[in-house]
Amino acid sequence: MTKVEGGGILSRTDGASMAYQRLEGKSPGIVFLHGFHSDMEGGKALALEELCKKQGRAFVRFDLFGHGRSSGKVEDGSISRWADDATAILDELTEGPQVLVGSSLGGWLTLLTALRRRDRVVGLVGVAAAPDFTEDLMWTDFTPEQRRDLIEKGQVVLPNCYEPENPWTVPRLLIEDGRNNLLLRDAINLFCPVRLIQGQKDADVPWQTALKIADCLASEDVEITLVKDGDHRLSRDHDLARLCDVVEKLVAGLS
User: Fold this and answer.
1) Which of 16, 25, 172, 254 is 20 to 30 A from 154 in CA distance terms?
2) Peptide bond connecting 164 to the previous residue in cis, omega within 30 degrees of 0
């Protein structure tokens, strides 16, 4: 497909379509990966886009399968599918070295994508990065009744603290596929610079997760920023300013 600046749709081989926004510019470029039940229109994505506009830097943000303006339903997605989405974006919409910035689920996907494309990914930034959340933060916390529902009914319904009127349906596929993509049980063989930003009042991802990621990474160039009063979203104005500062300094060091 022709690479054009602005909005577009990336067609996948199975007929699915992925919405994206793209800026052309200098390298290394930046790709933003959003979180679970989020989309590319969030504050972090837009703040990074503004940063890249000012710098004349290449930038891509996109909606994962089932999210935002992309096709499909979240309930039909999986970690493997979303990692495939991210890899397709990297392969088809970017050129040269790239820094991947991921929020929550996006943080897991940045690691999986970087492992697939070590030659292209030169840096990672995770915001409340949540590798292995399907196992460690879902399955482990499920009650016996919820586990039974998941196994027998194929899904479990969870409350949504952000939008109580829209509870989340978690399919068995998400949990089972997640087990094929676990990263925190072994070394993560990535050697690029990694920056992790984590709120210590995050009710969804324990702040200790950032320490686990750092411990598993083969890279020696890993820095963690703990935000004492930070929640999971880290989308307040000063949170966004911090994110842009971290990304800007990482990219400057690479340049």
Assistant:
1) 16
2) no
